[in-house]
Amino acid sequence: MTLVEITFLGTTAAVPTKRRNHASIYLRYQSENEFHFLFDCGEGTQRQMLHAGTNFMRINDIFITHWHADHWAGLIGLIETMNLEDRKNHLHIYAPESEKFLPTLLSIGYASKGFSIIPKNVEFEGKDILTLIEKDEFMIQTIPAKHSVPAVAYAFVEKDRIKIDVNKLKKLGLPGTSPLYKKLKAEGKINFKGKEINIEDVATIEKGKRIVYSGDTQKTNNIIKIATEADILIHDSTYFSDEGFEGYNHTGFQDVMKIAEEARVKQVILTHISRRYQDNQELKDIIKDYGNVKVAEDFMKVSLTK
């Protein structure tokens, strides 16, 4: 069994409230191995992690959507605490223009670091989905978003699991073990004794989970592209009406619903909520007719298993 667990550490837009901290999402993936990722790191994120029971020392990769302070200001304290806790592992920080901004951030104050902090630039122009990290079981991908500054969206993509039925292979004349299996999984088909064998003929394919985080963005085809058939789309929904957010480079509720419909998303979680919405019941009333939509709250956990 595999597990994807998402913990919302901060869900406000720009200004914190008594109930919502600045943007940050913690993702834990468990299969044969365990991986921990952080997406955005607004002010106060490390304290939110303590309340949530998550372990910041296990994070080796942080993904910043853009360099507005409500999405990165928590890096300073988090990195200093990691150092005080005698961290040794490298820390990779992915972001648009990471090599430009990260050295400046790390130069603040006099503290020295006992571990390497490695900036990783993320492409913020164009229409292509790019892969930042690839492991045997998953990938982390990105695509440019549309905001007032260079910005990107990210996707955690679990790879499909292919289970070959050995009995079906034997009926086709293949032995119980063969180096051809690896090629069959990689390419989807092989040629054996002049006969083409497709993966669908001899295996079951279990689709991997896809979780997409838009960061701050306007409605854009890029988000639809990376979110296509996502299990979860975590999307900027700063405003819940069409009034009052023109020109703010964010997305309103109705536009998020259009994105979700076009991308055939299974579940939508709305985040980056403006402080104008102090009553959660008001938001629940707005989404009540949408069965696959939730409004994120600080410390909310969502899990997907396979």
Description:
- By secondary structure, the protein is of the alpha/beta class.
- It folds into 2 domains: 3-160 and 207-305, Metallo-beta-lactamase, Chain A (4-Layer Sandwich); 162-203, no CATH class.
- 24% of the residues lie in helices and 29% in strands.
- The protein contains 9 helices and 18 strands.
- The strands form 4 sheets. A 7-stranded mixed sheet has the order 6-5-4-3-2-1-18. The protein has a 7-stranded mixed sheet with strand order 7-8-9-14-15-16-17. A two-stranded antiparallel sheet has the order 10-13.
- Helix 7 (221-227) crosses helix 8 (253-263).
- The longest helix is centred in the N-terminal third of the chain and has 11 residues, at 74-84.
- The radius of gyration is 21 Å and the shape is globular.
The average pLDDT score comes to 91
Q: Poorly predicted ranges (pLDDT <50, ≥5 residues)? A: none
CA-atom Rg in angstroms: 21 Å
Q: Which CATH architecture of the largest domain would you pick? A: 4-Layer Sandwich
Tally of DSSP β-strands: 18
Q: Tell me the fraction of residues in β-strands, as a range.
A: 25-35%
| Strand arrangement across the biggest beta sheet | 6-5-4-3-2-1-18
Keywords:
single chain, 306 residues, alpha/beta, Metallo-beta-lactamase, Chain A, 2 domains, seven-stranded mixed beta sheet, 9 helices, 24% helix, globular
